[in-house]
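Internal tracking record. Fields below are filled automatically when a chain is submitted to the structure queue. Please do not edit lines marked as system-generated. If the sequence contains nonstandard residues, flag them in the REMARKS field before resubmitting.
Queue: standard
Priority: normal
Entity type: single polypeptide chain
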Amino acid sequence: MSLDLATVTTGATLPELALPLDRTTIVATAIASQDFEDVHHDPGKANERGTPDIFMSINSTNGFLDRYVTDLFGPATRIRKAALRLGVPNFPGDTMTFSGDVAEVTESAVVLKVAGRNARGAHVTATVTLDQPIGGIQ
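SYSTEM-GENERATED OUTPUT FOLLOWS
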C-alpha cells in the first residue's frame, strides 16, 4: 500500500506492518550495518551482560523504521530527519509491529509519529520528518 504525501492529512492513521524477528534477521541486520557488538550475535555474551538472548541493534531498528516509512510512501520518499528513542529490546522470536499517525502536514514537510512494539511494549518510538514532494500540497 502506497500513501500519497501530497494528499495525506494531519491525524491520518498509518497502516500497521508486522515484522517477525528470528535469530538470523537480528544477526544479519547487525552485521549489514557493521555493528559487530557481541550482544547482537553471541548468546553467551548477551547472557553475561544480563539479557536472556541476543537483541536487535539500534542501526537495525533505524533501518526497519526507514523501511516502514518508505513502504508506506514509496521508494522515492525523502526522510529529512528521524528522531528515535529505544525502549524494550527485540529478541529472536519477537514480532515488531510498526504503527503511527500523521502529526503535521506543512508546505514543506510531513511529520509522522511512529512506534514499533513487541509483546513487552514499545521497542522504538520516533518522530519522522519527510520532505514534501516538489510543488508541496496539491
